[in-house]
Amino acid sequence: MALAKMSVAEVEGFLRDEFPQAFSGDDITIESADGQTALLRQRYSERMLRPGGTVSGPTLMALADFAMYVVLLSAIGPIGLAVTTNLNINFLRKGQPGQDVLAEARLLKLGKRLAVGEVNLLSGTSPDPIAHVTSTYSIPNV
After folding, report:
1. Distance, CA of 13 to CA of 24 (rounded, Å)
2. Neighbour-count burial of 42, counting CB atoms closer than 10 A to its CB (0-12 exposed, 13-18 middle, 19+ buried)
3. Which positions of the chain have pLDDT values less than 70?
4. I need a surface site. Which of 8, 66, 75, 107 has the fewest CB within 10 A?
C-alpha cells in the first residue's frame, strides 16, 4: 500500500469542515493515521452506556465505522463520498464503564473502487478486544 496521502492534521481539518456532525466535539481523537493503520480514542462518557452499565453496540459500531473512514481518508486523500457498503461486528466481551474505547483500524486491501479493513475495539488498557469489525468501503470515481 502507498504512503499516507493525508496527515492526521489534514484528516482532522477535512472532517471538521466536511463532517462536523461526527467530528465537531472533543470526544473522539485521532491518535495516528498513516495510510495503512489508524488509532482513534473515544473518551468515556455516560452517554456511551446502555442499561446494565456496558458500552452500547451503537457506540462501538459508530466508532469502528469512523475509524475505518479515517484510515481510508489517510490512504486515498480527501474523498468525502467514500461510503460504507458493509460492516460486520462481533461483540466479544463487555466494554467497561469509566474506560475510554480505542479503535485500531487497518486496511486489508485497497483497490480502485473498494477498500476492505478491520477494526479492533479495546476498552481502556486491556489488550483483549471487546469487539472485532470487518468493513468494506466504496470509493467513488473522481
Report:
1. 10
2. buried
3. 1-2
4. 8
